[in-house]
Amino acid sequence: MKGRKGKLIVIDGGDGSGKTVQSQLLRNYLERNVYKVKYYDFPRYYSSFHGRIVGRFLAGEFGKLDDVSPYLASLAYALDRAGAKDEMDAWLAQGNIILSNRYATSSMAHQGARLPEASRKEFVSWIDELEYKVHKIPREDVVIYLYVPWKIGLELTKKKGLRGYIGGGQDIAEKDVHHRQEAEAMYVSLAKSRKNWVKIDCVEEGTILPKDIIHEKILAALKSKKII
């Protein structure tokens, strides 16, 4: 975006990786340190028309996960973000920070994971064109990828509270073990190939690290990238 002065930070990762917890810790830190922060939690299941469509998809209303093309599913996610574009652009133009829990990067990983490996690179390019060139949402400055092995993420997801958008329990992606494995492979691949991604290892010796330790790792990464 021409004239952009602010920074867009994305927190991303597989299901059960602690994205919401770390997003809130980072938001609190930034606000304590006098940064002006606008927080987004995508998809916006309750406040956006297209976010509600995503919620219905994840609740299984349109069939099983593989019944809906990842290309078609991605349109609802993308339109939800596109609805926030003008507000995001204005905030960044003022030199402020946007913190986003999930973003277009999530569609690259989760929806790309549903395709054969040979088709994934083309799909990621399609998402890039759709989100950043057609809808013109702001491109993120950094993606903090919270790496939690999928098996541990599966157990952590089971401990989550009830989600209104699916009526409780796990959504159709969260309870699909094969999808978790493939999504992890996509995230790891993206983190290796994209310069603005930082992989944060959240597990040591098979145990999830304390949230404050993970938070400190995130702060160190953001300072190293000169984001804060």
Describe this protein's structure:
The protein contains 9 helices and 7 strands, in the order βαβαααβααβααβββα. The chain is an alpha/beta fold and 228 residues long. It has one domain: Rossmann fold (3-Layer(aba) Sandwich). Strands 2-3-1-4-5 form a 5-stranded parallel β-sheet, with helices on both faces. It has a two-stranded antiparallel ribbon with strand order 6-7. A hairpin with a 2-residue loop joins strand 6 and strand 7. The longest helix has 17 residues. The radius of gyration is 17 Å and the shape is globular. 39% of the residues are buried. The model has no long low-confidence stretch (mean pLDDT 94).
- The counted number of beta strands is 7
Oligomer: single chain
Q: In CATH terms, what is the architecture? A: 3-Layer(aba) Sandwich
Radius of gyration, rounded?
A: 17 Å
Within the largest sheet, what's the order of strands?
Answer: 2-3-1-4-5
Structurally, the number of domains stands at: 1
> Tell me about the biggest sheet?
5 strands, parallel
Structural class by sheet pairing and helices: alpha/beta
Low-confidence runs (pLDDT<50, min 5 residues)? none
Q: What portion of residues is helical?
A: 40-55%
Q: Quick one: overall form?
A: globular
Beta content comes to: 5-15%
Family: Belongs to the thymidylate kinase family.
InterPro entries: P-loop_NTPase, Thymidylate_kin-like_dom, Thymidylate_kinase
Domain Thymidylate kinase-like: 11-202
Catalytic activity: dTMP + ATP = dTDP + ADP
